[in-house]
Amino acid sequence: MQFDTKIAVVIRTDLETWQRLNVASFLAGGIAAAFPECIGEPYLDGSGSRYLSLIGQPILIYGADRAALSRALERALARNVTPAVYTEDMFRTTHDAANREVMRAVARADLNLVGIAMRAERKVVDKIVDGLKFHS
């Protein structure tokens, strides 16, 4: 199936495994919250047990160093794409309000980004992530 939109997550490659998984999870949650139309139907197994809905389209995960991550953020904003972001400072907080406080305390140019995610028209996302490789 071909989608008109693309979901991309870009994660800094120098993170610990637990950090990469944590960032990807939070960023995917941001996409789901901003785009409820991308959520599929609940799942049922053959025994009739119910399971939660998932995002109903592929999520492409890219790796980037700090500079490439900042460049992807600037490209997104220049194309009027509002990304979900996660900064290194958020690893030291324990709740959502604290995450917003650490974001508000730092100018965009000084954000210590560890991940961003976006959902937009396919060609727009392709331009934002141009030059990045899939995360390995």
Give an overview in words.
With 136 residues, the chain is of the alpha+beta class. Helix content is 35%, strand content 24%. A hairpin with a 5-residue loop joins β2 and β3.
Features of this protein?
single chain, 136 residues, alpha+beta, 5-stranded mixed β-sheet, two-stranded antiparallel sheet
Topology at a glance:
Elements: E1 5-12, H1 17-34, E2 43-44, E3 50-51, E4 59-64, H2 66-78, E5 84-87, H3 96-104, E6 113-121, H4 122-128, E7 133-134
Parallel strand pairs: 1-4
Antiparallel strand pairs: 1-6, 2-3, 4-7, 5-6
> Share of helix among residues?
25-40%
The description of the largest β-sheet is: 5 strands, mixed
Unreliable stretches covering 5 or more consecutive residues: none
Please tell me what the overall shape is.
globular
Tell me the distance between the termini: 24 Å
Question: How many distinct beta strands?
Answer: 7
DSSP strand (E) fraction?
15-25%
Write out the strand line-up for the largest beta sheet, numbering strands in chain order: 5-6-1-4-7
Structural class: alpha+beta
Radius of gyration computed on alpha carbons = 16 Å
Give the overall average pLDDT: 96
Secondary-structure element series: EHEEEHEHEHE
The tally of helices reads: 4
In short:
Helix content is 35%, strand content 24%. The protein is built from 4 helices and 7 strands, in the order βαβββαβαβαβ.
